[in-house]
Fold this protein.
Amino acid sequence: MFSLVGIGGAGCKIVDAFYKKDPLSSLFSLLAPSKQEKLKGVGIDTSETISGLKHLPVENRVLIGRSRAKGHGTGADVELGRKIMEEEIELAMNAVRKVNTEKPEVFFVIAGLGGGTGTGGVPVIAERLRKYYRVPVVGIFLLPSRGEGLHYIKNVGRYFHEVVSKVDGALFLDNNVLTSRGEDIGRSHATITATITNFMSIADPVLVAKEVEGKKATIGFMRIKGEHMSLKDIISRMLRDHIYINLDEVKPEKVHLLINGDVRNVYGEGFAMEWVKNKLGAEVRFSSQEVIGSKHLNIGMIITGVDDIIKSYEVKEEKEEKRLSPELEDLLEDISPL
Ligand SMILES: Nc1nc2c(ncn2[C@@H]2O[C@H](COP(=O)(O)OP(=O)(O)OP(=O)(O)O)[C@@H](O)[C@H]2O)c(=O)[nH]1
Ligand SMILES: [Mg+2]
C-alpha cells in the first residue's frame, strides 16, 4: 500500500487525478475493492485553488499559510514556501495521519519544482514523514517549461540538491520536453499527470521505491494493442514518445521495463537488451505480469541514473558586481559623505 502527499499547485492536481474514478475501475469494483477505497492521498497548498479540485475529498485537503500567502500562493518564493510549511507542519502532518489509518509501505511526495510552495515545502515535510513513519519517501517532481521564465529555472538550480537530499529516491518528469515539441503547457501538464497515474496503476510501489533508492530516475507509461511485437520496438517507441526527460543530457544506468498484459505476444529479449546497451549504455531488466487474453499491453518504464538533468539548470548566479577601477575607488574614498 502506498500513500500520496501533493504539495503546491502541481502536487495537489496530480493527487486529485488519482482520485478520478474511471468507468473501468468502478466496474471492477463490483468484484474487488475499488482502487479509490485503497487510495490514500493528501493535498497541501498555500493557494485557494485547492478548493477547486474536483475529486480529492475535502477532508484530504489542507490550506496552509493563510496569513502569509492570503490564499494566493507564494508567487514562486521558495523561502516563503519553506517558512509556511515549517510553521504549519503540524496541521499538515495531522491531515496525513488522519488519512493514513494504516502505516503505508511507501510515501510518494509530489510537487512541481520552480514554484515556492512545492520547492520550499517538500524538504520540510519529506523529512518529517521519514522520521515519523520510517518508510521510504519517494519524490515525484515535475520540472518547469523554459517558457515559464528564468525565475522558475533558477529556483530549480538553487534548490534541486536540497530537495533531492530529503527523499529516498526521486523521479523527474520535465514539462519542457513536451513544450519544446510544440505542446502547450496545459497539454504537457495533462500528459505528465496521466503518465504518473497510469504508471502507478501497474507498478508495485515497493519495487519502485527499491529501484530508485538513493537515485534520480524517470518513469514512462504507454498502452498499446497487444499484437505480436518485438521488445526492441516497444522500448524504442517508449523512449521516443513517452519519456519526459531529455535523454541526450543524461547517462542512464538501468532501464526497467514493466509489462502488464498478454506477454505471449512479445518477443526478442536478447536483441532488445543489446540494442539498449548500444543506444544508452544502460542495462535492461524486464518484469511482467501476465494477463492472459488481455487485448492491450500496459507498459511502464523506470530509467535510473538521470542525475545529469540538473546540469541545464545550473544557471550562473547574478553577474558579479562590476569592479571599479582602482583610481576611481581612491577618488571616491576622498569624497567624504555630506
Ligand atoms: N506536469 C505537471 N506540471 C505541473 C502541473 N501544474 C503545475 N505544474 C508545474 O509545476 C511547477 C510549479 O508550479 P506550481 O506547482 O503551480 O507551484 P507551487 O508549488 O504551487 O508554488 P507557488 O504557487 O509559487 O507558491 C511549474 O513548472 C508548473 O508548470 C500539472 O498539473 N502537471
Ligand atoms: Mg501555487
User: Anything to note?
Assistant: The chain has 14 helices and twelve strands. Residues 8-10, 13-14, 46-47, 73-76, 81, 111-112, 114-118, 142, 144, 148, 152, 175, 185, 189, 192-193 surround guanosine-5'-triphosphate (ligand 1) (CB under 6 Å).
